[in-house]
Each structure stands twice: as C-alpha cells, then as structure tokens.
Design goal:
It contains 22 helices and no strands. The protein is mostly helical.
Length: 456
C-alpha cells in the first residue's frame, strides 16, 4: 500500500509539481509520465500498476489515431510542393486592389491551407516567410500584418482535417466524422470575422493597409487565368472533405486518400524527389512521436488522478461554486484559456477533457436568452468544437503561445516580440467572441452534423 494523502493536497502536489517541471523547460511528455510513475510508487498500490498497460495500450492500437501521421505527412508533402506560395500569390493578386487586401488574402490563404493540412506550424512558418515581407514592403502596419498571419494560421487546428479533432475524438470517444463536420461552420465564421475586422480597420484608416498601386494590379482576364493554379489544391480539399462528408470513406481512409493526392500534387509541381519524401517523412516521424509520447504521459497522469478521486474532487469543487450550467462552462473556458498561456493543446486536451466532459454530461443546457439548448447526447460534440475554438487562443496567448514564436522565427529583425504579442490581442478578442457565439448559438456547431448524419 502506498502513502495516503487527502485529495486536495495530492492535487496541489501533482499539478504544482507539473508546473515546476514545465517552468524548468522540460518536455511535457516526460514531465507528466515521470510524475505519474513517481506518484504511483508513492501513493498507489499494486492494483494501480495495471493502469500502465490498460491506459497506454488502447492508444497504441487505436485505429483513428493512424490518421494523425497521415495528415501530418500530407501537410509536409504539400509544404515541399510549394502549394502555400502559389495559393497566396493567386489570392493576393485577386484582393490586392482592396484596402487591407493583402492581410485579407493572408487569412483566406490560411483558411484554404487549413482545409488541406490541419497543422498550424507548417502554415504559420511558410506564410510568415511569404506574406509578412510582402505586406511590410507595401507599408502595412506591422501589428495588423502580424495579427492576420497569427490568427489565420491557427485555423489549421479547427477547420477539417484537424489533428486536434482526431485526438479529441479518441479521448472523448466521440465520432470523428461528426466532429470534423461540426467544426466547419465555426472555422469559416472565425475566418470571416478576421477578414471583416482587417477590412473594416483598413477602410477606417487606409494607412494601416494600403491597396496595391494601380501599376501592380492585373486585369480581370489575368485573374481568371490565375485560378488554374488553384485547381489541384481545391480539388484535393474537395476530395478529402467530400469522401468524409458523403460517408464514402472514414476519416482515416480519407487521410490516406489525401496523402496519395498530395503526392500527385507534388509530382505535378515537379518537386516530388527522394529528398522531399525523406524530409517529409522525418518531419512526420518527429511530430507524431511527440504527440504519442504526450499521449502516454498525460493519460497516465490523469488516470492516476482520477483513480485517487480527483475527478470527483474537481466536479464537487466546480459544482460547489453554485454556478448555473452555462456558468460552469464559462468557468471551464477561462481555465482552458489560462492553461493555454503555459501548455500546448495536446497536454491541455489530455489533462482536462477526461475530467471536464463527465461533469458537463451531468448538466442540462437548456439554452440562453430564449434560444435553443443542447440535447444531452450532443454535449460531447458541442463541447469538442468549443474546446477547439478555445485552443486557438492557446496558440496566440502570451507568454508561451506557439504561433507567436513560429512567427518570430521567420519575421524580419525589426519585428520585435513585443510587437507580435500586441498584434495578437485584437484577434484573441475575436476568438473569444467566436467561443461565445458557439455557446449561445449551438446550431453553429450542431446543425451541419445533424443534416449530414440524418439527425443522429
């Protein structure tokens, strides 16, 4: 038998210890895994040792998780194929004549890329190398240019195919197809909000985002010719999402189809070489290994916490606040936002979803302001999409938002870290509004899955 400790002190020790190790700069996967083993030894018993194989093995053999390396590999291949540069070139030549057109083109290009790759890092870095210098050369406000890049890049974790959706579906035992379909409208809503914000600010103050000079604009006939360059990327998007939405293939099979399609696109651009394949494979291996190690460590950490009564303790603490169901949900959103300042989304998902989701399932969401509520069976899907919208803020929230550092790594020297931090603030507010809209109007999330799945 291990030592006995009240759950309050055990919670403080576990999460306090995790915070200390993370502040020391240790990788999250090894922080959670080593703490789980340590606390199992000190406070567990022989029966709890079964948790090691019983929690890790199902993840190692989960069929849906095989979509993760496939989508990451698809993203890596498309990045090498130069698709990102071509898409931005086409979109900005269409919109460059408008005030703020380059910033809007950046957001729209990121939206299209999100529908192909589902990975934030590749989009953020490559677009940062292409779009940011283009905007700065044309005297765009640095904060507006950086902000549109940051916000557009984060759409990769929401718009399908999304790696985050795959991980959430596995942890929450939710239909991946429904989750991918449910995230379409929220993703497009946020993209539209970013474009509307950029456009409005530039028309109020044209100095923030001047239109391209007339001599750099092209005729409408030339714009139509440019669209030919978007044919294969758009076809790939329609192929991957179409086979999922029409029920022709599972998301995992669609990932395989998309990866094969990415090879064809890369070959069509004459960039399919052994070096390209090797570099994409190594990048996929590194990213997948990181995700899986975080999986193993965090699931052990949370599993031990739940076995010691942590889930009941958190539930009683949250429900003990006396908040109404929507108040509980808002409190959880605030907790997720704060965690997003320090942890990456994989860790937050694996640490919180197993604890928060069972609490939400016990609550009744009857609607706000006289609007429609959420049926109990729809709560996991609804919360999953809200969670993903919230996690976009984790990529932008200082001090450790990943997108902030992705952009800094490729930004010109005159763009300081403080400028990048300040540029994220307005878009963080837009993302918070997006979370609020999905909570108040749940049909934004639920309508399309009900239509596609016949009301199930």
């Amino acid at each position: 038998m291990g030592l006995e400790l009240p759950i309050l002190w055990l919670s403080i020790l576990m999460f306090g210890g995790l915070g200390v190790l993370l502040l020391l700069g240790l990788p999250m996967a090894f922080c959670t895994g080593s703490l789980a083993v340590l606390f199992l030894f000190l406070f567990g018993n022989s029966a709890m040792l079964n948790m090691l194989p019983s929690r890790v093995f199902p993840f190692m053999t989960d069929y849906q998780l095989s979509a993760v390396p496939l989508f990451i590999f698809m993203a890596a291949i498309l990045e090498k194929a130069g698709i990102i540069e071509e898409l931005f070139d086409v979109v900005y030549k269409w919109l460059g004549g408008l005030k703020g057109g380059l910033a809007s083109a950046t957001v729209i290009s990121c939206t299209l890329l999100a529908a192909m790759v589902g990975v934030v890092g590749a989009t953020e870095v490559t677009m940062g190398m292409i779009a940011l210098p283009a905007m700065l050369r044309r005297n765009y406000d640095a904060k507006l240019a950086c902000g549109s890049l940051l916000a557009g890049g984060t759409l990769g974790i929401l718009i399908p195919p999304s790696v985050m959706a795959i991980v959430y579906a596995v942890v929450a035992q939710q239909s991946l197809g429904e989750l991918l379909i449910g995230s379409v409208f929220p993703g497009l809503l946020l993209s539209g909000m970013y474009v509307a914000y950029v456009t409005a600010r530039c028309y109020i103050n044209p100095k923030l985002g001047p239109a391209l000079p007339p001599n750099e604009r092209i005729a409408f006939a030339q714009k139509l010719k440019l669209l030919r360059r978007t044919f294969m990327p758009i076809l790939l998007i329609l192929l991957v999402l179409g086979v999922i939405f029409m029920g022709i293939a599972t998301p995992v099979e669609a990932a395989g189809i998309g990866t094969f399609g990415a090879f064809i696109v890369c070959a069509a651009h004459r960039r399919l070489t052994w070096d390209t394949i090797r570099e994409a494979s190594v990048a996929t291996l590194k990213a997948t290994a990181m995700v899986m190690w975080i999986f193993f460590g965090a699931t052990m950490f949370v599993g031990f916490f739940i076995l010691k009564g942590g889930q009941n303790f958190v539930a009683e603490t949250i429900l003990g606040t006396g908040l109404a169901p929507y108040g509980v949900l808002v409190l959880m959103m605030i907790i997720l936002f704060v965690l997003g300042m320090f942890l990456d989304w994989v860790g937050i998902l694996l640490l919180t979803v197993p604890i928060f989701l069972p609490i939400l399932k016990t609550l009744e969401f009857g609607g706000t302001f006289g609007l429609a509520g959420v049926a109990p069976e729809d709560v996991p899907l609804w919360y999953g999409v809200i969670f993903m919208v919230n996690m976009q803020m984790a990529f932008l929230s200082p001090p450790f938002g990943y997108s902030l550092f992705y952009l800094k790594s490729v930004a010109p020297p005159e763009i300081s870290m403080a400028t990048i931090f300040r540029s994220a603030v307005p878009f963080l507010c837009l993302q918070a509004i997006g979370v609020g809209l999905c909570i108040v109007f749940p049909s934004i999330v639920l309508w399309l899955p009900k239509v596609m799945y016949g009301g199930n």
